[in-house]
# Entry
Amino acid sequence: MSRQLGRVVSQILNRYFGEIVEKVGNDLFMYGSKPMGMIIKSTGLPRTQVIESLRTLLKFDLATFEAKDVIVDYKLLPDNILLLIRYPRYLLQMKTKYGSEAEMLVEELLQQASCTATVLIVSVMNKYKDDKEKNLNIVKLKDTFISLATAGYIQQAPVAESNSEIPILVPVATIVPDLDVRELINAMNTNLNNVSDNIYWKVNYDRFHLDFRDEVMIKAVTRRIDDNAGELLKLMLEQMYLSSSSWASDSSPVPLTDLKDGCQRISDNMKNHVEQYLRVIEESTAFIRRTGDAGGGQYSVRIQHALIQLVEALCDHTVTERLGGKAARIFRLIRSKKYIEEDDIQKNAMLPNKECKELTYKLLEEHFISVQPMRKAASAGGMAKAIYLYHVKLHDVAHVIRDMCYRSLHNVMSVSRHTRVLNARLLDKKRRVRTIVHGMRLRGEPQQNIDDVRYIFCIYILRGAWTVEVLDTLTPPEVTSSAEAERRLNTLAASELHLDRELFILTSYFTYQR
Amino acid sequence: MSDNKSDEVSEKILNVARKNPKGISDKDMAAAVPELTSAELVAAINKLLQQGVFDLYNQGGSLLYRLKNQNSKQAIKGADNEEKVVYNLIEEAGNKGIWIRDIRIRSNLANTQLTKVLKSLEGKKVIKAVKCVNASKKKVYMLFNLEPDRSVSGGAWYQDQDFESEFVDILNRQCLRFLQQRADKIKNNPRGPIVGRTQSYATAAEVQKYITDLGISKVKLEVEDVITILNTLVYDGKAESNVYPDGNRVYRAIESLLPPPGLVQVPCGVCPLIHKCNSTGLITPQECKYMDEWLEQ
Ligand code: SF4
# Structure
């Protein structure tokens, strides 16, 4: 595991859980796995704080434990920590696919890490019951919960088997529950502790990741060919879920007739040209492959191959932006020729000798390409000059790029932390004012008052029965600089998400390389 | 054709040529030796061209053959034996030229003497030294009036042995523009994607015509030259190529599979200092100017 990963993980832990957890996390990251006593020793934190931190980490699945006799070793799960950055994307996915109820449910579940269906629904209900705009109702929430469970976006949490002192977590198969609305309403009005529901749920990240993977592939095909091709690939991926394991490197073949049936629904143009589209996709992107002739032709989706191509596209972009288009030309040339000599690079890339050499060495220096000396075997002694063959090891380049992503993510996060610290007082104040404004809205105060608080020119607002004392005020310069800080933070947050998208493609690629 | 007969033919053609110092067309040649079939005639002409007797001109769309001036032959008349040997070796090498080392080995002359001979021949403008594009240090010698072969001069892309990268860049961009004009044909084509793709494909010959019509090139570009340029587009990731059943290569402008990814959207992705940037030390994200500028916008 790379040092850069450690730095990002540390930043993330700091942001979401604070300094103490960050410290424990760093310690665990550095040593791989270690028992609690050792953590206390090396971090110098009090025992209770370490226990508290570990509890948090374990609760959110950011660490695991393993029992060796009586000692329990704790181990960090950096990959899961990285997922914290992806939460907004999960929520967005829910919102677009199942509507805002689903978003609320998943948000709550992510915050709680795991909880029972009753608790989940009731707490979402309670949280938003004052909010007129959302217009929640419990039946709808229940239905959404069930469809999420059916689609596999949430699943039952593993249960602890406590035969010995140290529990072991055993995964269980998810059974879609039958929730009774009356009981839910009851639970809302009584104490939650009395509820007998003891099946715990958690978010199934993997299901989301499948969606993201499909989305990337479909978008790529759409970019390269057209919308219809994208639709066709979507259809094939849907078929794939029926017949093969979802992370298989190649889907099991689908007969053409099935695809034709599916295309009927999309459009006439599609229906008439399914075979043509299949051929064009195959030739232009190689995301799919014709595997046989039975039933008018069998086609399978080549997930692994697609990811290789996507990672290649990532590499191309990175090289282009870092070293320029000419370097990217050399990079791609080397990749397409597998092994190539320096002279041939110059000839094919059509670049001046000197520039070509310089760029090649730069590529070498940044580890985008590698070189392999080849001695001409058994030729006339000293005269034989070694030839140097250049080539691209995609796996290594992907590592280089992933490391750069980690680095950038760390940098972006630390700049955003820095900005936040610098403007802490201001942002805090703004938040307070905002809460007041929000409260006034909910209470139905006249707009006039609200505006007053917004731009705060008055210090005391006395209206009717309700009195607010706004002690902190935002002066106009403060308003501008806090807006500026917020704008910066938003840009940074958006980049975090973009970086995460890239990391997602890289990670998916690596899962197939093992 | 026996040697005797072919000599005879050559002599006849040369005679006609001598009478017309402005040059003769192949029709004139055919008239001079009516007994030959056209294939034989072509063979004879080629032989003469190879010997470097003729210069080839394009005049008003038809080719003209003109006799080269024979000064060189005469110049050598007065020369000494060494010069003759060297001259013959160089002449033999044709427009590919010959390397000084090979002359030395084959002529058996000592280094100093050979340099002297070459100098004197060069001084008389009988031979010339041409820099070879493949190896910048390597010079080859050939007869003064010869046009260097592509392998020596580098063809259209070289001007005085210097690679004209700007010219290549311009062509590269123009080719791409041409391909892009028709790239959208594949999108939602009512006649299906195969027809659409075919409409968005362009053959090298089409591109060559477009480039020629643009008139941006001083030299005449062959289809092969255009293919070389089109291939750079493929390496740029901006085009894909395919082969038609008739063996013609076709090209189509394409988009990258992904939009610019997250890494290149943040300053760190393009930052030359990324490997030196750390949490502490001289270069840190908090103090970073690039970040600041980027966030300013
Ligand atoms: S923070 Fe600044 S110096 Fe560091 S890598 Fe990013 S752009 Fe470069």
